[in-house]
Amino acid sequence: xxxxxxxxxxxxxxxxxxxxxxxxxxxxxxxxxxxxxxxxxxxxxxxxxxxxxxxxxxxxxxxxxxxxxxxxxxxxxxxxxxxxxxxxxxxxxxxxxxxxxxxxxxxxxxxxxxxxxxxxxxxxxxxxxxxxxxxxxxxxxxxxxxxxxxxxxxxxxxxxxxxxxxxxx
Length: 169
Known about the structure:
Order of helices and strands: EEEEE
Strand content: 15-25%
Radius of gyration: 34 Å
Strand order of the largest sheet: 1-3-5
């Protein structure tokens, strides 16, 4: 595919600059949130007998929240896009060719996605039931928040600009 720009009459400018750059890559998607931590285990039940028994066991602490989703595949930036075609500039006279200059730049790749946040902590387990002549166990504590996900990667490829050619009519 090619685009043609034709100057039919006279090129009165002392200099005409043509610029070409194709489209940049897209930003990577954001990572998902980590899953919630698991609930802690329940405490053991207290001893039931006609003697001095033990109290119910303490509930286990909640599990650590899941690690946040990495801004990985799909979280990676897109590559720059190559120009869809080239450009031809047609000028009235051979002497006008020197008046036309061109500047090109490659399209930059897209930036990385944002890492996903860590998961929420798991809840503590329930305390064990009391035995005869003793108390219930206490509940377990909450777990910790999960770690943040990994950073996505930026795109790796630059897009190629259009090639510009200047020629007389």
